[in-house]
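[#protein-structures] MJ: dropping Lumazine-binding protein here for a structure pass
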Amino acid sequence: MTDPSDGFGQQPQPGQPQAGQPQGGQPQAGQPQAGYPGPGGPPGGFGAQAGPPPKKKRTGLFIGLGVLALVVLGLLAAGVVLTVQGRTPLASDDKKIEVAIRDFYDTLDSDGFIAASELACAADRAEIENLTPEQRRQFDTATVSVRIDDVRDIVITGDDAEATVVGQLTLSVEGEEPDTEDSTEEHLTKEDGTWKICSAPANKH
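AK: finished. structure tokens for Lumazine-binding protein:
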């Protein structure tokens, strides 16, 4: 015989929910759960409404474009300066000749004849190579002080040119009094597209 306390006839104990009643914390039918949308409602989360997406800041883009513009302007300015100085293919032959003369004399002033000869034409370099040991020693010990004020009266004839260098050139040779000049005539020739000082007798006209 079945015990009436078992099965469907069992009475609920004190503190236990009765059959058909929802347990604590569970939503009843028809009530939306927390964090989920109810009928026709927005997604949960404290009732916050979804707004438009934030606008992206363009500060970084503007800064990048500004830096790029400065770089481009700097390159253009450098190109203009080099062209004015005669150091680009766009410079005139007159400017290139002036630069060749100034570079030669600057090297002569700071490093001496042997170093300056590396900037001269092939004929001048050959003459330096053919110096006797005594002549080379004299070249090595000679000192030159140069100040160029102007390069003028440039005359170009094909791949040859002449120019007048105005300033002060003082040559000091061991055992002799210093020799100072305030102007000198320079001869140049174009080799491989580059103007070079060329003082060798065969190149003077």
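MJ: nice. The first strand starts at residue 143 and ends at 157.
AK: one more thing. Residues 59-84 form the longest helix (26 residues).
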